[in-house]
């Protein structure tokens, strides 16, 4: 067995916002929390783009992203030309058991639209909406997160990642 290597490229993200001290002291407006949320979102989206591109590169080099394409799904579901339920199961079970137990799905919007339509043999959707505010939706028993920087699902791009985010 070999241990793979990856090149780590340091990046920095910056965002500036200028406000007056008088505006800062005015607690009626609550400007600082608003500025903080806005700046955090900007920085998060910028970092998310770099993170996704490096994860996809590592995944395709390390075998995490998989799928045969053209799969149909479970009994009673319509086929999609590019990705099927079987592809997602193959991806999930390509991870070792300890990672599968705590794994999460990261999907492009187009992959989410497809996954939400998969049904089991009794016609029940495999996608389960969040049970409370702030919780992620679930697919096949694992949380799902959308990444706007993943490519649209196509014949050469499945745009779905699965794994343990802590690992």
What is the tally of helical segments? 5
Largest beta sheet: what is the strand line-up? 2-3-4-1-5
Largest sheet: 5 strands, mixed
Total count of strands: 5
Quaternary state of this entry equals single chain
Euclidean distance between termini CA atoms: 19 Å
Structural class computed from helices and strand pairing: alpha+beta
What does this 3D model show about the protein?
- By secondary structure, this protein is of the alpha+beta class.
- Helix content is 34%, strand content 11%.
- The protein has helices spanning 21-25, 31-62, 85-92, 97-101, 109-115; strands spanning 104-107, 127-128, 137-139, 142-146, 160-163.
- It has a five-stranded mixed β-sheet.
Task: Summarize the SSE layout with pairings.
Layout: H1 21-25, H2 31-62, H3 85-92, H4 97-101, E1 104-107, H5 109-115, E2 127-128, E3 137-139, E4 142-146, E5 160-163
Parallel strand pairs: 1-4
Antiparallel strand pairs: 1-5, 2-3, 3-4
Summary tags:
167 residues; 5 helices; alpha+beta; single chain; 5 strands
Give a brief description.
Helices cover 34% and strands 11% of the residues. It has five helices and five strands; from the N terminus they run ααααβαββββ.
